[in-house]
Design goal:
308 residues, alpha+beta, 4-stranded mixed beta sheet, 7 helices, binds zinc ion
Length: 308
């Protein structure tokens, strides 16, 4: 009735589970409990802190290196493997030297996306680049950072988009995403952009979902579009700020080479409600934009640990 695929990621056992009835999936990494988020009592510090591993004084001492013993530095961004991975080749890019810059520049976004591009070395796999901004969007660290991972299997929602696009192509002989971006560009939901077309999603999967439709499919082709993608992301952040939303999630979804006839990469951003800037949530980009929750507790441990 369900399947379990166990993967060892940097010495941590991670399970990919799938409910065979519905196809719904989750990822379980019990090591993530070590982050003690369930007992987090310290308020967020908006000034640089001695305990923040992403601050410049700590980053070299407190974050891991790639297998070559290095971190990737692009502009002021620093990219390295995630200490608590829930995906293959799961990397983090710290975007700014400043702990809480308030404003993130277009250049900082560009450098950070380049860091992600270079850090995701399995470019031929299924890749995504993701961002939880502020704790009310599920970020456990206030210091701005991107997360990317690649894998042999796309996330649940990315799989759904790719599979359904393939079916659409088989039935209609057309690329759904190309058709969608062309028609949305003529609609009242169109916002800006030409090569990358930015529109409000007519059926949003989160508050004020805005999508940037890229004219490419695979991750390998993304590098040359990074500056334009960054300019668009910065504009969407501006729209959210104008609307009073400061927290947001973002995912950039990619197909693979060979999927060009039916799939297109796109950027999806959703605003999060932050009535309280100190608020934390366990609903982040995996839950909100990939529909594949990241879980800490193995279900078989619940009875043993708490049930008697
Ligand atoms: Zn910091």
């Amino acid at each position: 009735m369900f399947s379990i695929t166990r993967i060892n990621l940097h010495g941590q056992n991670t399970e990919f589970r799938k409910d065979k009835l519905t196809g719904l999936r989750c990822r379980i990494n019990p090591s993530r409990e070590e982050r003690n988020l369930n007992h987090f009592i310290q308020p967020v510090t908006f000034t640089g802190s001695e305990t923040c591993p992403f601050c410049p004084d700590n980053i070299e001492k407190m974050t891991p290196c790639f297998d070559n013993g290095k971190r990737i530095k692009t502009g002021e961004s620093v990219t390295f493997p995630n200490s608590f991975p829930f995906g293959e080749n799961h990397i983090v890019t710290v975007m700014t030297r400043k702990h809480y810059p308030g404003e993130i520049t277009e250049n900082q976004i560009t450098d950070s996306l380049r860091g992600q591009y270079d850090g995701l070395y399995k470019k031929e796999d299924y890749n995504s680049i993701n961002w939880n901004y502020l704790t009310s969007a599920g970020a456990s660290m206030i210091h701005p950072h991107l997360q990317g991972f690649s894998g042999r299997v796309p996330t649940y929602l990315n799989s759904l988009y790719i599979e359904k696009s393939r079916e659409y192509f088989q039935k209609k002989g057309k690329n759904y995403w190309q058709q969608l971006s062309e028609s949305e560009k003529e609609s009242e939901r169109y916002l800006f952009g030409d090569e990358i077309v930015w529109c409000a999603n007519p059926v949003p999967i989160g508050e004020k979902e805005i999508r940037g439709y890229l004219p490419i499919c695979s991750f390998e082709e993304f590098r040359e579009f990074i500056p334009e993608a960054s300019a668009g992301i910065k504009k969407v952040i501006g729209i959210y700020q104008k609307a009073g939303n400061h927290a947001f999630n973002m995912s950039i979804r990619f197909g693979k080479s060979g999927h060009e006839s039916y799939f297109r990469a796109h950027i999806s951003m959703i605003a999060r409600i932050d009535p309280n800037p100190m608020s934390f949530t366990d609903s982040a980009f995996m839950e909100r934009l990939h529909f594949e929750p990241v879980i800490m507790t193995v279900p078989e441990m619940i009875r043993e640990r708490y049930g008697r």
